[in-house]
Structure formats: C-alpha cells, structure tokens
C-alpha cells in the first residue's frame, strides 16, 4: 500500500514537471504560488495526489526535522496519518518574492497550530520550513484564540518598512533587552495578543513575563534567521531558548501606522540531532 501511494505521488509530480515544457499556446488556467501551497496543505486532509505535482520531484529540501527529506518524506508522513484524522484550514497566506508563508489550523497527529514557509523555483516548491505547536483548549486571558483576528492584507507599499520595524523590534527588545525602546514599537497599551498565555497590551505582556520570572522560566531570543512580509503582515523566524530548551520562534505581526498592533506566535522545541529524520537543519535559509 505504501509503495503504491508513494509511486502515485511521484507520477503526479513528474506529470506537472513534464507539462511545464508543453506548448504555451494551450490555454490553461494559471495557478498562483499561493494557491499551490494552499492546495498542497489541503491535500494532507483530502488525500488528493495532484497537488504533489507542485513539488519539485528532483529537488525538495525538508526542514521539518521529524520528516524525511525529499518528496518521498512528504508521502511517508501522509501515509503515517491515521485514516480520516487530518484536518487543514489555512487561515492566512502571504507572498514575499519566492516565498509563500501560511498560518494554518491543523489536526495533524492531534490539534496543532502551524506556520509553514515554502520556497519556489520556476513555479515548483523546492524547500519547506515550519513550526508546529499543540492547540490550547481555551482562549487566552483576553479571549483570543491562536488563529482569530485580522486577515485583510493592506499597505503593500509599506512591506519593506514594516519588515524593518519588526526586525528592529526583535533585535532591540527580545535579543538585546533594550526595554527603554519599547515605546518605539507600540501605540501605548493598544496591542492585540494571541499567545495563549498572555493578555492584550504591553501591560499583559509585562504581567506574563513577571509571572514567568517568578517561576524561573526564561525566554531568550539569540538570532533572527528570516523576516518575511506582505503589506501589513510580517513573519519573523528566530532561534533561542525557552525554559532552557533549544527553541524555534515563529512570530507573526500585524503592523498599523508604523506600530505593532497584533501578534500571533508558534513556539517549538527543536529536536535533538539523535531524533531528526533529515540533516537539513531547522533554519538554513538561502542568502
């Protein structure tokens, strides 16, 4: 069964690859990279094999450390899912050059929230990164979930400025701890928070950090690996430690009028080398 399943995926992938060289005069609907990613993710739920044709069958680098490399690794993880268990609802999808990044509500070996990043070359997916975290049962102290909130993409002309704002915020506040600069990044206490343990506003953040300090729990950011954005939404991908564990931080920010207005995140412990199914690293973004 597994062999048949994986063979079907490879055939589907090779089919699109060969179609890329067909006569351009044949009228075929153009599928955007964003649409391709949404279809690939949805195929985890539906079992559809056609979306695998959007993945380069000869060159696909996997950075989820629990999945084997290449298209075969993708097929194997789908095959391992309990029958009819998977659910995929992509809430937000964004494009930044050759990258598509998404915010998705999953049932993937249990309920999870995930950020996924895909890199394209010549219309095909060649690389994938993600961060996954178990979905909390209750909303946060302000009543927000991990996925609700603003969706509309605006301010496309401000993409680069917003990416710079977020990079500077992570550097100044979370890496260097220059709390005297925090007022540069927020409009007073107006700040919507989707982290399951933190209430809205800087006051909510301060209370949560104080509670963590009392429990001896530390949250450290050490390096920013990638900042992606489209308009008013910016995703930062960082590395550090949480409670002493080696950690990957994916933080999505909504920027409004030059200030951070809303925040979602997924925090994942990085698997030790002995437990990894590929050697590509959790980050390793191309320059």
Automatic annotation (TrEMBL):
Residues 166-263 form the SnoaL-like domain. Residues 1-21 form the signal peptide. This is Conserved hypothetical lipoprotein. Pfam families: SnoaL_2. Gene3D superfamilies: 3.10.450.50. Keywords: Lipoprotein, Signal. SUPFAM superfamilies: NTF2-like. The keyword Transmembrane helix does not apply. It comes from Zobellia galactanivorans (strain DSM 12802 / CCUG 47099 / CIP 106680 / NCIMB 13871 / Dsij). The keyword Signal applies.
